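Reference record
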Amino acid sequence: MPSVRPISPTEHRDYLATLPSASFLQTPGWGKVKSEWRSESLGWFDDEGKQVGVALVLYRQLPRLKRFLAYLPEGPVIDWADDDLAAWLDPMVAHLRKQGAFAVRIGPPVVTRRWTTAQVKEGIADADVRLLSQIPPAERNPIGARTVAQLHELGWRHQGVEGGFAAGQPQFVFQVPLRHADGTQRTEDEVLKGMNQLWRRNIKKAAKEGVEVATGSREDLKAFHELYVHTAERDHFTPRPLRYFETMYDALRADGEERFTLWMGRHEGDLVASTIAIRVGEHAWYSYGASSTEKREVRGSNAVQWAMIRDAIAAGAAVYDLRGITETLDADDPHVGLIQFKVGTGGEAVEHAGEWDLPVNRALYKAFQVYLARRG
């Protein structure tokens, strides 16, 4: 059974560098971004002392009590293909219990099912189909199925997803594969041909209209944030403060410059679209986006997305991740527009194992659930 002990951020960073990729939520830099949580890096070691796993743990304190929810977003980074997950998880839980955790929440980074673009489009068009899970998937992942079965057996509780979005990280995402099945890189032309006609037309229109896309500096975060606040007002969501993005820029780029890139799309000097891209090894993410209500006809958002995809291909990334979607395929649901936008890229809908809780102190965990229900 591997042993678990705290490690330094440098050891954490060095171990991640040996892997093809890991979630950016499991990097040491992310602990600095989430400053309202206490963070800790953990390492797994085999009998010979060789490091075989890593995790970023975020501790959230209960009001008025020195007890914590220990949260590992999209982690831990261990061998999820192992038939004996207890050997990995039990020593971790024992450590977290000593740290005062009343419950542990994990997000196994394993895929359970995949659906093609064609399947998603057919589902939206079919009035009898309301949820992605009603469609037989193009692929069922045996490692994902085994992980889910083992977690149930070990007493972990799957966290339900209300309306498709979990309180933590999304269970369903939309991704564009940037490699063929044999592992070779897809070309820009191949990825472009996989997009729908509207996406291709919009990318071409942006170029014809003279939209110029370039990467921005830390100083450009202010302009991004102004556009992001404008987007939040238009689309009715609560924006994060500028300081959050400055912290994110500093913390993630301290782990590696490729971890955070700001993209700016301008038309005749006006900022019409701006996004934040994140990359860890072979995995590239679209993280935050903003767009102007003015000049929407020049298609700045499509131009910036295409620039990010091209950059990911050039970096040798295996996947371009557009992050969360809901499970709904109901044409009348307001969330379906987001899926339709992402489906246009020609990628695939991907389901992960989701988030799982293990109550360490059942009474406190129950009280925590009641508190969340009242707050929600």
About this structure: The chain has twelve helices and 16 strands. The mean pLDDT is 94.
